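Write out a record, focusing on structure:
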Amino acid sequence: MRRSITTRGGRLSRRTLFAGALVAGTIVLAKPALVQVRRKVKIAFGVPTMDSADGGFFSSLPIGAGFYADEGLDVEILTLNGAGVAMNMLAAGQVDFTTHGGAGVLAGVGQGVPLKAFIVQVPNNFYAIGVDAATGVPRVEDLKGKTIGVPALGGSPFVMLKAVFGQLGWDPNKDVTYQAVGVGMPALDALRRGRVDALMAWDAPFATFAAYGADLRLFKPEPLPQVGFTHTTNASLAIIEKDPGLVAAMARALARSLVFMAAAPREELSKLHFKVYPESRSPGLSDEMIAKIDKMRMAARLPQMRFQERVFTRAEKIGDETDARIAVGRDLLFAAGEIKEALPVERYFTRQFLDDMNKIDVDGLIAKAKAFTA
């Protein structure tokens, strides 16, 4: 019986291995294949769960489709409770990058955290304040004196909510009570049982609640609709200065992921996510319910990502955001006292890596994405 040797790509017979090795009557010994050593990189994510493909643009997609590996990166993503915790780890040198709401970047830089965003993945605002449509208050102004459920007592949603209340002329530290409820079903349960009067969250959790039959009225008071810079990935100033090649590699991988997310079949992106993160499947739920929730979350997220302008028409650069929209969020936080100074936009966001992101083969990636199966 012919012996064979097993490789990662399949099985090679000994005859195949040595075929072509006879050259001018001598045997040329095959050189061992070079093994690529990927650089280990850590990203701190400011949310404690990785529960859906709507966030796959920095997680399941670049991992599962191999975009990080293509850049020589071995990426570990740490899930944390709030952008503040993520930025503290970055400042302490415990992680290389953070990814979370842009409001966290604005607040963090204002508090002296030495970091900048280098890619804006979700440009449009996705935050809202939700109340029960049947029994909740009819106007956001009627929330004064009420209890608001927030994902965590810190991080981007919390900072943005306090800024909105400050814009209404309230003292956000006295006129409203906050209760940390997370972004999963316990948050909806707290609203249904009256432990909180409203919820501050973003598009994906609200879509999950809708999948479970919740009928919520969503408030997006001014200036939330004009706020951009909604989800970013960020690096320390030291890494940007001393290791720009690492940031460029991460930027290219993340840009490829955005293009793939724009063009790939939605159900295949969901399948990929749950292959990469099987633990994110809620126990006790049927495959049909899991697929329904993920479909609704993706449908809520995609309009905020400006894929038509960024990927298909290329009217805007992948990963970019306008100074004006960043300034709206900055000024909102400054007016509410959440940051002490309205710094120049370039203190929060660098366009140093936009060329790296926009020189990728967009058309080729679109073609591959459309044919992708998980």
